[in-house]
């Protein structure tokens, strides 16, 4: 078999089924493939709850099955400095960050890529459900064909240099196909559950984990009229649109509809709640954003008619993006969006192409 021009690729083997099949597909395509297992969190700092040992065992089993060399590297220090410190700072500021987005830019496609290139590799590959289209004008990031698994949302911070050295072998596959290939290949992890949430929190309660790093600051839970309904243990434990975990029982003077978090009053340490999932305080037709990043390296002409997502797996929402100052922009949606959350990512698309995105500052209604 004739090998591809960029012949040596190192795959990030996480121990999961996706990265295992990504390695298998590259081998089938004629690449010289090696694996790399990244340890991104020091379990001693997290009471041993991140199952790195189990994941490593699964990665080793896949590498052995494929006859592939497996490198092991510890990026815990890089993760702490480049991702976790930002994670904590955002929560201190009352926002809800998305560490997966930053982890992709700083760890999987920076620390890992740099390490792979230092080993003499031509590029890296991961099990992300996304596609890359190389053209004369640069590299485009496209959605994965599986709408339910498309992960382009989490990759919007990548650069041309990072994408040009990357491959996503699963971009044209559906999840059921991936599991079937893993089963056919005899991978012991073919039925392993997909990882959810944030790895460094593991199976523990989020509040319990966060208390180790940020002191709890109890305060009042209030309704729109300022009536005190209960007490929260810290604004950082709540996000816009949240229903569960508020501890507000039935009230004789209320409609009986469930309560939802609508806003955070940082100055007075108050949590504002409203009744009903479609309460007007939860719906906004616009948002402001900062830290806008374009994948192709330059901003398109604005105002820009495109579509956007304010959360993973959301359908594309038609919108208009326009600048509002040197480092601020605003988005106006064709229809109202529920639970726009400061600190989360808003990611822009034109058809199948992911253009880039930014960090949500606030929702608004004209």
Describe this structure in words.
Helices cover 23% and strands 30% of the residues. It has a six-stranded antiparallel barrel. Strands 3-2-1-4-7 form a five-stranded parallel sheet, sandwiched between helices. By secondary structure, the chain is α/β, with parallel strands linked by helices. The protein folds into three domains: 8-184, Rossmann fold; 215-277, Adenine nucleotide alpha hydrolases-like domains (SH3 type barrels, Roll); 283-364, Translation factors (Elongation Factor Tu (Ef-tu), domain 3, Beta Barrel), CATH 2.40.30. The chain has helices spanning 17-28, 52-66, 76-92, 99-118, 160-164, 175-184, 206-211, and strands at residues 8-12, 32-39, 70-74, 123-125, 130-135, 138-143, 166-167, 219-222, 228-232, 259-265, 270-275, 283-294, 304-309, 317-323, 329-338, 345-350, 353-364. The protein is built from seven helices and 17 strands. Strand 2, helix 2 and strand 3 form a beta-alpha-beta unit.
Total tally of structural domains: 3
Structural class, by secondary structure, is: alpha/beta
- Total E-strand runs: 17
Radius of gyration: 22 Å
| CATH topology term of the largest domain | Rossmann fold
The separation of the N and C termini measures 61 Å
Order of helices and strands: EHEHEHHEEEHEHHEEEEEEEEEE
CATH superfamily caption of the largest domain:
HUPs
> What's the architecture of the largest domain in CATH terms?
3-Layer(aba) Sandwich
Helix segment tally: 7
Query: What's the overall geometry?
Result: globular
Q: Can you identify the CATH class of the largest domain? A: Alpha Beta
Q: Helical amount among residues, as a percent range?
A: 10-25%
């Amino acid at each position: 078999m004739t090998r591809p021009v960029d012949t040596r690729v190192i795959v990030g083997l996480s121990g999961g089924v996706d990265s295992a099949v990504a390695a298998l597909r590259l081998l089938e395509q004629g690449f010289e493939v090696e694996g790399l297992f990244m340890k991104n969190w020091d379990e001693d700092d997290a009471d041993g709850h991140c199952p790195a040992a189990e994941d490593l065992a699964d990665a080793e089993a896949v590498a052995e099955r494929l006859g592939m060399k497996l490198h092991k590297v510890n990026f815990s220090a890089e993760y702490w400095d480049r991702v976790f410190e930002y994670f904590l700072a955002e929560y201190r500021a009352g926002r809800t960050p998305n560490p997966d987005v930053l982890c992709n830019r700083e760890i999987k496609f920076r620390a890992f890529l740099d390490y792979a290139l230092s080993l003499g590799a031509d590029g890296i590959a991961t099990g992300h459900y996304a596609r890359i289209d190389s053209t004369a004008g640069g590299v485009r990031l496209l959605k994965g064909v599986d709408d339910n698994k498309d992960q382009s949302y989490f990759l919007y911070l990548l650069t041309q240099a990072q994408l040009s050295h990357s491959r996503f072998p699963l971009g044209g596959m559906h999840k059921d196909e991936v599991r079937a290939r893993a089963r056919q290949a005899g991978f012991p992890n073919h039925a392993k559950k997909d990882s959810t949430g944030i790895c460094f929190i593991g199976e523990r309660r989020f509040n319990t984990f966060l208390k180790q790093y940020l002191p709890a600051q109890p305060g009042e839970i209030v309704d729109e009229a300022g009536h005190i309904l209960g007490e929260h243990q810290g604004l950082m434990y709540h996000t816009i649109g949240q229903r569960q975990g508020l501890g507000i029982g039935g009230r004789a003077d209320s409609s009986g509809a469930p309560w939802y978090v609508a806003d955070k009053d940082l100055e007075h340490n108050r949590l504002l709640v409203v009744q009903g999932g479609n309460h007007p305080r939860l719906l906004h037709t616009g948002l402001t954003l900062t830290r806008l990043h374009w994948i192709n390296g330059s901003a398109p002409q604005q105002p820009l008619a495109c579509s956007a997502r304010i959360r993973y797996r959301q359908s594309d929402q038609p919108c208009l993006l326009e600048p509002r100052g040197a480092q601020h922009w605003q988005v106006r949606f064709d229809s109202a969006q529920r639970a726009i959350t400061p600190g989360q990512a808003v990611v822009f698309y034109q058809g199948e192409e992911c253009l880039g995105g930014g960090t949500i500052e606030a929702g608004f209604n004209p």
